[in-house]
Amino acid sequence: DDVIDAMAETPQVMPQLHMPLQSGSDRVLKAMRRSYRSEKYLGILDRVREKIPNAAITTDIIVGFPGETDQDFEDTLAVVRASRFMQAFTFQYSIRPGTPAANLHDDTPHDVKLKRLQHLQSVIEENVQSISARRLNTVQRVLVEGPSKKDPTEYMGRTECNRIVNFPAGPNPTRLKGQMLDIKITQALPHSLRGEVVVA
pLDDT tens digit string along 119-156? Predict the structure, then answer.
């Protein structure tokens, strides 16, 4: 709570918070020797969003931890859907010598891990697209980073919740880098937004 309060009280252009979930299954979290459980984790996210509505929350998730069942994986998906992550770094479990888990039997077949990973990534992608879709026709404050890598006639920047926005550069584009602009969002794409400058 102290960290959340400190972030809320400190003005930030793009507040970001990385909160590793690892798993949404309480049973797996216990096996991982994590100090939190899914209910506590979601409660923390609720408090973050209450005090910092535009916070971009990212996470880490592992699938196929030793002993993970289909129900454990479904529990993870449920927490992911509720968490509305802006980005997630996802991994298949693999043995790392010297860690407590290295003594556990890696009993999840590779093809099952891969299938779960792909399913997890699709759910995360749905979450991100839903977040983007809710920004259609809204005006977002965007920090301009520079010319678009794909189209030199466009510029790109990031919203306060760290979504990439591409927009026409217009006249004097070199003067835009580093500025905060109001951009009206006109299109929500899978991995970015498109818009037009409202106020330069």
Answer: 999 999 999 888 889 899 999 999 999 888 888 788 99
pLDDT at site 144: 92
Nearest in space to 57 (alpha carbons), one of 82, 85, 35: 85
Please report where in the chains the tokens 């931890």 appear, as a residue. 65
CA distance 120 to 77: 7
**Distance separating alpha carbons of residues 33 and 169, to the nearest angstrom:** 50
Model pLDDT, residue 175: 75
Question: Which is higher by pLDDT, 9 or 94?
Answer: 94
Q: Exposed/middle/buried for 193, CB within 10 Å: 0-12, 13-18, 19+?
A: buried
CB-CB neighbours of 184 under 10 Å: 16
Which residues, 6+ apart, have CB-to-CB distance to 79 below 8 Å? 21, 24, 38, 41, 42
Give me the residues paired with residue 67 across strands: none
Q: What residues have CB less than 8 Å from 154, skipping those under 6 apart?
A: 147, 148, 166, 167, 168, 169
Single pTM value for the model: 0.81
Beta pairing class for 16-18 and 56-63: parallel
Longest dimension (CA), the chain: 62
